[in-house]
């Protein structure tokens, strides 16, 4: 293998970078009830909780007081219609506090619900970076999966059924005033979702770490996030009641969220997106299936960082691309992740169109450490089939 380091694979210490975080981050088993206390302290009493059905049934753990309404039908990988239904309720409630309570799907919708009615804009008007004019309500995020890190970030993703694309909205107005991260809320996540969301957190850290925009300020979180996944993901999949393992993954997910803001993901996520938008494969599951392929594809231009990733995961580093692939593939497969597109009922005839769609996601691919052509993405899908 031709191992050489890209001059842009590791940014210099002096490269400019800006960090934005929620003003308050509460972390720890049992902190969920602080939600109600924070709302009361800030005089907020018209509260709209945005949750999936599972979490809607246990809103009482947030110990909220005042007038609490719940939009409890967030769908996994929410689409525009799902958002519109939540927005309709927001117009009726006119909340002073919006709470995202669930996985990335609920938290992403909560971000948009906190800004769209009050800014007077439509979703189409805010797609892209920093288009949102204002936010009328406070925003609290309470994650119940360990994967997206959405609680710490400024992005929201909604699927447009017309184009099969993920519409990405990014705005500082969507940054939470407070994130309450209670690992105990994740004890109920089933093993398959634990594995998939855990690899999503891993992918955020790995892709940011190897990005052309990688920065030492973020590398620290990225590598520690990978190491936390290495220590705790298999344990949490094995025994969902392992509180220490759950806490380690909540932290890994948060660190992944820190990676997303200023650096963001690259080819792994871009190549995984069509699996979700066209074939409704859950975001984490799609990332797990693609992860070994893009890690190995990038290895020749990011040899040292790839070795550091494998070591942090507790795997054997190797200078050989096929061995990098094998180690990462074995890791995901052992967690129980489905690693074959055919087993997920993706029609083979769809692969060229998926490759075209993935290749068009320039906001992510332009930062991949190694250029990847449409043909190379197609070859990757064929290998994964
Ligand atoms: N904003 C960002 O930066 C960002 C980053 C990555 C992904 N995302 C988006 O996040 C979404 C995926 O989020 P996710 O992976 O967290 O999944 P999710 O929110 O769709 O939840 C997955 C499933 O787990 C259930 N669930 C949630 N918490 C549970 C719990 N504690 N116990 C039992 N079941 C529980 C949900 O009801 C749902 O059925 C996608 O739309 C993706 O595009 C956003
Ligand atoms: Fe992700």
Full CATH superfamily name of the largest domain: Dehydroquinate synthase-like - alpha domain
User: Major beta sheet, specifics?
Assistant: 6 strands, parallel
CATH topology (fold) name of the largest domain: Dehydroquinate synthase-like, alpha domain
Low-confidence runs: 1-9
- Write out the distinct hetero groups bound to the structure: nicotinamide-adenine-dinucleotide, fe (ii) ion
What is the straight-line distance between the termini? 24 Å
- Mean pLDDT across all amino acids: 95
Structural class: alpha/beta
CATH class of the largest domain: Mainly Alpha
Question: What general outline do the C-alpha atoms trace?
Answer: globular
The CATH architecture name of the largest domain reads Up-down Bundle
Q: List the helices and strands in order.
A: EHEHEHEHHEEEEEHHHHHHHHHH
For the largest beta sheet, what order do the strands appear in spatially?
1-9-6-4-2-3
Radius of gyration: 20 Å
């Amino acid at each position: 293998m031709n191992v050489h380091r890209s001059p842009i694979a590791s940014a210099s210490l002096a490269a400019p970078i800006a960090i934005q975080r929620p003003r308050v981050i509460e972390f720890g088993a049992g902190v969920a009830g602080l939600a109600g206390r924070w709302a009361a302290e800030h005089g907020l009493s018209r509260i709209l909780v945005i949750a999936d059905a599972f979490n809607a049934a246990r809103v009482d753990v947030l110990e909220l007081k005042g007038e609490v309404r719940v939009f409890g039908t967030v769908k996994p990988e929410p689409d525009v219609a799902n958002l519109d239904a939540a927005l309709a309720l927001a117009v009726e409630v006119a909340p002073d506090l919006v709470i995202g309570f669930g996985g990335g799907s609920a938290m992403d919708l909560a971000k948009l619900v906190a800004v769209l009615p009050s800014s007077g804009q439509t979703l189409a008007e805010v797609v892209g970076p920093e288009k949102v004019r204002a936010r009328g309500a406070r925003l609290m995020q309470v994650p119940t999966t360990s994967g997206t890190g959405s609680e710490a970030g400024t992005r929201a993703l909604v699927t447009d059924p017309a184009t099969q694309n993920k519409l990405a909205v990014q705005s500082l107005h969507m940054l939470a005033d407070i994130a309450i991260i209670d690992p105990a809320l994740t004890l109920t996540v089933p093993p398959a979702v634990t594995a998939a969301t855990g690899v999503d957190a891993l992918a955020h850290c790995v892709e940011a770490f190897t990005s052309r925009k990688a920065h030492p300020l973020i590398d620290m979180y990225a590598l520690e996030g990978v190491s936390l996944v290495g220590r705790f993901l298999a344990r949490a999949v094995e025994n969902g009641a392992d509180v220490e393992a759950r806490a380690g993954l909540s932290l890994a997910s948060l660190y992944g969220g820190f990676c997303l803001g200023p650096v963001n993901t690259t080819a792994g996520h871009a190549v995984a997106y069509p699996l979700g938008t066209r074939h409704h494969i859950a975001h984490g599951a799609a990332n797990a299936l693609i992860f070994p392929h893009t890690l190995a594809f990038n290895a020749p231009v990011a040899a040292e960082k790839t070795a550091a990733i494998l070591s942090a995961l507790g795997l054997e580093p190797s200078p050989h691309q096929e061995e990098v692939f094998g180690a990462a593939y074995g890791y995901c497969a052992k967690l129980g992740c489905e690693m074959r597109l055919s087993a997920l009922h993706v029609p083979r005839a769809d692969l060229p169109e998926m490759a075209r769609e993935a290749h068009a996601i320039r906001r992510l691919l332009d930062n991949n450490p190694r250029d990847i052509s449409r043909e190379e993405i197609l070859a990757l899908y064929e290998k994964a089939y």
